[in-house]
Amino acid sequence: MTSLPDIPLPSSIRSRYVENINGLTMHVLEAGFETRGRPCVLLLHGFPELAFSWRKVMPALAQAGYHVIAPDQRGYGRTTGWSAEYDGELAPFRLTNLVRDALGLVSAFGYRSVAAVIGHDFGSPVAAWCALLRPDVFRAVVMMSAPFAGPPKLPFDTADKPAPRAADDPVHRELAGLPRPRKHYQWYYSIRAANADMMSARQGLRDFLRGYYHHKSANWKDNQPYPLKSWSADELAKLPTYYVMDLAKTMPETVAEEMPSSAEIAANAWLPDAELAFYVSEYARTGFQGGLQWYRCGTSGAFDAELQLWSGKTIDVPSCFIAGRQDWGTYQRAGAVEAMQSSACSAMVGCHLVNGAGHWVQQEQPGEVNRLLLHFLEQTVRVQPS
């Protein structure tokens, strides 16, 4: 790994490796490491991102007195020890094992507990499950861009009226049968061809990622989200094509239709070409399958029974939700953001939508995200036992 190029980071962030973390050698970005005894904050990225996505957040948290740790999660970047063969074992990528990765990492750094775990996109459910399963370690949680509606429910009151057998969700057949046939991106990401589609994108990997990040950002002016009424084909078809795709198209073909102009790319201050180039170089080296395995764990239903062990359990540590106001991710699963606030989290102290941000909220509007995070930490660290 010593031959890999340097990461374009602020001088206050360092890159390092930590061995023997649940079978992984984890690549970690770290800030606030200069003095010992600081409270720790753990940052968990999403797809298709890396620890690098926190580069604009880490210095502010460190400046406020925190030791900030952001790993490349299992399946991503410079972390090694995982295998993403499509026909290989999925179990290492299931949510409970991702929590074990996070727990092992903070323990390796010598922490019995952390002030907060903060997750974005697919890192959001990992952070939520960290707080749900080990509230003694993860004493507060911030979920970003992906609301947490709670653990899957166990069948209830079925002794005399048995529940129907689990079957394929009919919504997928209904989506395919619409006048404009569609498919859900998570199920597309679960097919064998998805990784190859992206790695061999006709427009090239760089333009594919540029188009993908653009399409889901506030820069794409058609991102004007609103709540959906139900998990149904007619409602899901209202989502942009990066979520509910045209049936015959790949993801590279989907985002190519909304490729930003040269002028728009030049004006993009939140992801200039030099920073995009790092994402491109890392995914060119690793591919996307490591991240896609996470989607397959969910769409397969293979680990639902394990997660039902915590059916009805709530997140009882202080919690907060932050997303871009122009992010459809808040509403892509009907009722999730409402369930998060009303039933899944018993101590939610804030739900914030940030103006001028789409899905990549901490990259698009880092100043406001940092303000919200620091305010949340000031509120919660004060009341945590030492």
Question: Any overview of this molecule?
Answer:
By secondary structure, the chain is of the alpha/beta class. It folds into two domains: 13-153 and 310-381, Alpha/Beta hydrolase fold, catalytic domain (Rossmann fold, 3-Layer(aba) Sandwich); 170-291, no CATH class. 34% of the residues lie in helices and 14% in strands. It has 16 helices and ten strands. The strands form two sheets. The chain has an eight-stranded mixed sheet, with helices on both faces. A two-stranded antiparallel ribbon has the order 7-8.
Silhouette: globular
Secondary structure class reads alpha/beta
- DSSP summary, beta strand count: 10
Q: Roughly what fraction of the amino acids lie in strands?
A: 5-15%
Keywords for this entry:
386 residues, Rossmann fold, 2 domains, 34% helix, alpha/beta, two-stranded antiparallel ribbon
What topology emerges from the helices and strands here?
Layout: E1 13-21, E2 24-31, E3 40-44, H1 58-63, E4 67-71, H2 95-108, E5 116-120, H3 123-133, E6 141-144, H4 170-176, E7 182-184, H5 185-188, H6 194-199, H7 205-215, H8 233-236, E8 244-246, H9 251-256, H10 262-266, H11 273-286, H12 289-300, H13 304-307, E9 319-324, H14 336-344, E10 348-354, H15 361-364, H16 366-381
Parallel strand pairs: 3-4, 3-5, 5-6, 6-9, 9-10
Antiparallel strand pairs: 1-2, 2-4, 7-8
Helix pairs in contact: 2-3, 7-11
